[in-house]
Amino acid sequence: MSEDLDQRAAPLPEAQWHALLEAARGARERAYAPYSHFHVGAALLDEAGRIHAGCNVENAAYPEGVCAEAGALSALVLAGGRRIVAAVVVGAGTEPVTPCGGCRQKLREFGAPSLPVRIADAQGWRGEHTLAALLPSSFGPQNLSTSPLPASQKDSGDAS
Ligand SMILES: O=c1ccn([C@H]2C[C@H](O)[C@@H](CO)O2)c(=O)[nH]1
Ligand SMILES: [Zn+2]
């Protein structure tokens, strides 16, 4: 196993998970969801150890609404991040909120199949999934000859 894969396999310290949870909860409080009333917050840890948060932003033209994960991803890219190391999504109700299909693909652009995605609600953690479990047999940057990823960061589409 390469050093790169070893690093990704190392579990994230709980203190960092907690910081991500707090960032996602804070973002969720800023959600603009007057139509669904379903407030979501997300936080992403990048390769430099920085946390980027986002909330869902709905629109009177319903399909133009943006998910919390997409907002956090934009913040990560704007800050110069290129890798997602860990992700947290915080929803509202009693059912855990996992990222929608579109967001799973968006996360795949900057996250390895081994990316851990934790789900939480007001009570606390509700589960952890790899991106590979959420998006099996995924299509990612490594599938294109124009992939922006260096060889060391490419890994097979479905490995977790
Ligand atoms: O993982 C999810 C699931 C849903 N939503 C948003 C989209 C919409 O604004 C509202 C209801 O689907 O929740 C997110 O932001 N992230
Ligand atoms: Zn989404």
UniProtKB/TrEMBL annotation:
Reported EC number(s) for this entry are 3.5.4.5
GO molecular function annotations of the record: cytidine deaminase activity
Q: Name any cofactors this protein relies on.
A: Zn(2+)
> What EC class is this?
hydrolase
- Annotated coiled-coil positions are none
Residues annotated as domain CMP/dCMP-type deaminase: 15-142
Cited CDD domains: cytidine_deaminase
The protein's role, per its UniProt record = This enzyme scavenges exogenous and endogenous cytidine and 2'-deoxycytidine for UMP synthesis.
PANTHER family in UniProt? CYTIDINE DEAMINASE
Q: Which family does it belong to?
A: Belongs to the cytidine and deoxycytidylate deaminase family.
What name does UniProt use for this protein?
A: Cytidine deaminase
